[in-house]
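pasting for the record
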Amino acid sequence: MLAVYFVASLLASAASVSARNAADLVGTWTTKSREVATGPGFYDPVEDKLIEPKLPGISFSFTEDGYFEEAFYRAIANPKNPECPQGIMQWQHGTYTVGADGSLQLTPIAADGRQLLSDPCESSKGLYTRYNQTEEYTSFTVGVDPYYGSVRLDLYSFDGTPMIPMYLAYKPPEMLPTGSLNAITSKKNKRQVDGGVDTAFVLRRLVSKDSLVDPDRWLWVGVVMSAMGGVALFFS
């Protein structure tokens, strides 16, 4: 009981700012490794490619006028075959709204999102697709982390589960243009996507090792993440 009370007190002290104030979200937030950040360093819309960071992590950016951008870089453990973890990179942007109850909804621009999935035990090439996922968070808190002394953002998923804490990296935020990037990527791909089509898998191609990211590096990251377990989660 004492441990539960301590954790609850720690979270309460970190959340010292109103959870319903959208202005508190403004900026670029990133997990503790600070290697993953939104903007052109993660996704290049001209070349239409995702750029692999040195370490896994998560980043969100929010503007004052209701736009967001997010970048994910994760290793996914394979319990049946620990030597074959998957790697995944995801990027999307769009608009966000904060509800009267403090909830947060992210609505992406469907044609712009990108995902790269790598499974080195299945193929030496990664699968590159469109990515479009509306996200809902029951609440968020912004405050000063009592241990690190940095401004910290905590997001709580649709079921109330807390995400890994993120820390303020840039204010104003580091982001790509907030409008649709489809015109830019269409020039590169020589194609247009009908907005009425399910775009989740319209852009679907195999990416070689020397393009986008090297899948062999996904294996290395996955093995390290699996070996370190909770330690890696804490330091991400």
